[in-house]
Design brief:
about 25% helix
Length: about 140
């Protein structure tokens, strides 16, 4: 990644400070203004009592992609509303990719669509998020 772009500097700082995303093994693949693409590998400790990966794992991956995309302009933005539709189960050993695309960039809100795919290019979940933009900066 070219760290000369302000959106990359902002998202790299967010990732450095995001211990939960680090624990999950999330890696940044691509960052642009209003856009992010991230990946993670699914580990055995992410399985639920039904033998499939806990839905919170896919939700968290999408939520991280959402956060990186909506904060990329260095305007501190927080989730106002989110929803997710689980389309296929996730299994241990899968590699997931979440791609966040900005649908609306307003003065006080933003709307994002996050698609999550597995290594077979199957969409496993679809996440929609609305953020609220504050007047604060992530990097002063």
């Amino acid at each position: 990644m070219d760290t000369n772009n302000s959106y990359e500097v902002v998202v790299n700082k967010m990732m450095k400070d995001d211990l939960f995303s680090q624990w999950l093994g999330i890696q940044l693949l691509e960052i642009k203004e209003g856009y992010s693409k991230i990946t993670m590998h699914v580990r055995p400790e992410m399985i639920n009592g039904l033998g499939i990966v806990h839905g919170g794992i896919a939700f968290t991956l999408a939520d991280s992609a959402f956060a990186f995309a909506c904060n990329s302009r260095n305007q501190l933005s927080v989730a106002l509303d989110t929803s997710i539709q689980f389309l296929k189960p996730v299994h241990v050993g899968d590699t997931l990719v979440a791609e966040a695309t900005e649908l609306h960039n307003g003065k006080s809100t933003g709307l994002y669509l996050i698609q999550i795919f597995n290594q077979h290019q199957h969409m496993i979940a679809l996440f929609k998020g609305t953020c609220f933009r504050t007047s604060k900066k992530i990097i002063p």
